[in-house]
Write a structure and sequence with these properties.
9-stranded mixed sheet, 11 helices
């Protein structure tokens, strides 16, 4: 398979029977003002079985670590877990950052294959720097693979996104039928209500796949750390939003027997401290390199120096900093075949930070000595997130071992009766979650 990054890999293609309806469908939606709900014209769906389709709501609780469910006051999430499937942890792919992880969940591809290899990237072919907040993040040239909303739309379903990385982008000529441009200041209850409003559309316009995203726990986790009372209070607040979503769906009448909830987080959170920092200036002249990304994964593109010289200046110089040439990144991280990956990759140990002297000064001049971060090696338990799956097709009261998030695309496609696109996941990894 060839992604935007031109990385080549033979991927497994899954086949599975669908519901018996397939529409060849390409949507082109004009971009309008930020903050407004985007809705495509009603699609000419003529399937008598539309009312029998399963509905899947994919909810992301950004930065929710695997143990928050047991440490915070979360009665609604615990009730869902008890009535469905709960994983002891959801293992992200490397790097355990927001954009790469979210896009892996909906494509089933490693970041080196779908092209979103970091929250910040360079691409020599495109000639621009990618940033989450910049207009470049809405440029379809960066996004490879096929996210689940595209899979759904191409097979005659309707998709809706209340925020998700990539959902504002024309990918393969397709966007969700309904979507909202990301505005982080949007109140959480407004986000819930938008999903409920979409579910109240007439049957032939109602989406069967919806996404919902919350950033509160991640934001608080960065500021106060994963062991703080503040992060547990934020988790309790999101539990109330999940309750509002479930109550709202139940109040719609008739839909609850079709709705499946898949509640995830993109990564966990590790506690950092100002006495666990690696300063790059101690080893290299940072003016000779282009620094891409932020702690704990920092990529270096040499400008006036050579890769070999910069690599030698950093390699094995600090016991809590791993340094790799791109082609030498451990195979377990699946992070060396994409040209967007910098030629030198530095990775801080779990709980450590790495940055320039300027960044370090800003961190140490802050009001707090302890905070939180993510992006570390996914094998660290602190990087594991949340997975709860509830609905008619899922088993009840089942707890499964930690599972990699790369398998969720296949699992969700199965719930919706879709033929999955080529991906790196394995359908057998989630077989035990289903009743049949």
């Amino acid at each position: 398979m060839k992604t935007d990054s031109t990385a080549t890999r033979t991927l497994k293609t899954r086949t599975r029977s669908d519901w018996g309806w397939i529409l060849a469908l390409v949507l082109t939606i004009a971009t309008v003002s930020t903050g407004a709900c985007q809705t495509a014209p009603p699609k000419p769906i003529e399937h008598a079985a539309q009312a029998e389709r399963p509905i899947l709501i994919l909810v992301s609780l950004d930065g929710w670590r695997w143990d928050y469910l047991d440490r915070a006051v979360t009665p609604r999430l615990n009730a869902l877990a008890a009535s469905g499937v709960r994983s002891e942890g959801l293992i992200p792919q490397f790097p355990a950052k927001t954009f790469p992880s979210h896009y892996t969940i909906v494509t089933g591809l490693y970041p080196e294959h779908h092209g979103i290899v970091a929250n910040n990237m360079l691409d020599a072919t495109i000639g621009e720097r990618f940033s989450m907040a910049a207009p470049t993040s809405r440029d379809s040239r960066w996004w490879g693979g096929e996210p689940l909303w595209v899979t759904a739309e191409r097979q005659g379903h309707i998709a809706a996104s209340m925020f998700w990385p990539g959902s504002e982008v024309d990918i393969g000529g397709v966007r969700p039928s309904h979507w909202r441009p990301f505005v982080d200041a949007t109140p959480n209850r407004e986000r819930v209500q938008q999903v409920l409003d979409w579910l109240q559309l007439p049957e032939l316009q109602r989406p069967s796949f919806l996404t919902l995203y919350f950033s509160t726990v991640d934001t608080i986790g960065h500021t106060f750390g994963p062991n703080s009372t503040e992060v547990l209070e934020a988790a309790a607040g999101l539990d109330e939003e999940i309750g509002a979503l479930v109550d709202g769906v139940n109040a719609l009448g008739g839909l609850s027997s079709r709705v499946h909830y898949v509640i995830v987080s993109d990564h966990g959170m590790s506690e950092t401290a100002n006495d666990r920092i690696v300063t790059l200036d101690d080893y290299i002249n940072v003016d000779t390199v282009d620094i891409i990304g932020v702690s704990p994964v920092v990529g270096l593109w040499p400008r006036t120096d050579t890769v070999d010289h910069v690599y030698a200046a950093l390699k094995d110089k600090h016991p809590s900093l791993s340094v790799y040439r791109r082609e030498e990144v451990p195979a377990a991280l699946h992070y060396n075949s994409n040209p967007r990956i910098p030629p030198i990759v530095t990775i801080a140990d779990d709980g450590w930070s790495v940055g320039t002297q300027r960044q370090v000064s800003q961190w140490r001049n802050g009001t707090r000595s302890v905070g939180g971060n993510h992006g570390y090696d996914p094998s660290a338990k602190s990087m594991q997130g949340l997975l709860i799956a509830v609905g008619p097709q899922f088993r009840r009261g089942l707890i499964i071992p930690p599972i990699e998030n790369i398998h969720l695309y296949e699992m969700m496609a199965h719930v919706l009766g879709l033929r999955p696109a080529a991906n790196d996941g394995d359908a057998s990894a989630t077989t035990a979650m289903f009743r049949d």
